[in-house]
Amino acid sequence: MRLPPNNSIATPMIRKAVELGINYFETSATYCQNRSEIQVGLGLKGLRDSVYISTKSHVNRKDQTSFSGRVPKDSSGEDFKNVLKESLHKLGTDRVDFYQFHGLTLENLPIALAEEGPLDALKDAKDHGQIGHIGFTSHDTTENLIKILDTGEFESMTVYHNILQTGGHRPYENPLPAIEHARKMGVGVIIMGPLGGGILGIPIEDLRKFIPETSSQVELAFRYLLSIQGITTPISGMTRMSDVEENAKIASEYKPLSRSEMKTVKKFALNYVALTERFCTGCGYCQPCPQGVRIPEVFRLMNINSIYGVEKWAKEQYTRLRQGGPLGRGSAELCIQCGQCEKKCPQKISIRDDLKKAHSALTSA
Asked: Looking at the whole model, is its pTM more than 0.90?
């Protein structure tokens, strides 16, 4: 998902990943400014039979707000046929192993299941060998995830989870009951956000104290997920060759956490539950902002500053965001309170109010 824009960097990264044993690649027509499928296709050229490719598309409801603006009509089976055809072309393949409904909610499920609608179109494509398995990704509540699973229509589920959610009690947090439900049904589970939107890549002294023998927080984050029965694989957005090498090494050498270590991890997470009530997952659904506010990055720095105590580094990074860089300025002060972002946020965060708080905290002396 977070491949670098330069193909001369992205392609070797993908090929190195395959060489090191990584064999599941998840993409989307909208990832990386609409270039992800093309990059994945280029990177996997000649390696198709060695990997599993997953891509996806949104089920849209009439008049909802999407990446491209207001949706004129409900998604149809024909829409999905056309998007699949384009995705296969960009990927340079005649089939994908997984095709997922992107960001599926219980509210939009009837549109997906409509007669001659999106699901029927995907089933037809599966019958013709263009799709191996039909699944969904979602940020819905645990209760709603279980209801979606209970339709019996899906073979895979991709949800957001990481160490920081272990003690979560909000309905949008801690999908472990849904993961266990999927396991019992024989549904594969893919985990997005294993590093908490990058937060777990920043040293958190308290976390390292809990399980000191772990070589890095990144290792601990993946060991935690790989120790949960029912999780098939975690997926991580990698932007550097070193990310690929580190993640592959962890996956090939990991040692499951013991029961006592899992309890220790939960204890750590519970200490932060109250502070993460408005936790931004970094999904990016609020983007692009018409004014250029890089909302996920602002909230990421806010969490690093106020929750995990890495104050100096977070404020330095926010100063850079205010001054502008390769992506331009993106600080919270650019917000004009239009509210478009809040309509698209799956976590139902009060983004406008929280941007004000984040700017104040990250610019204080």
From this structure: no
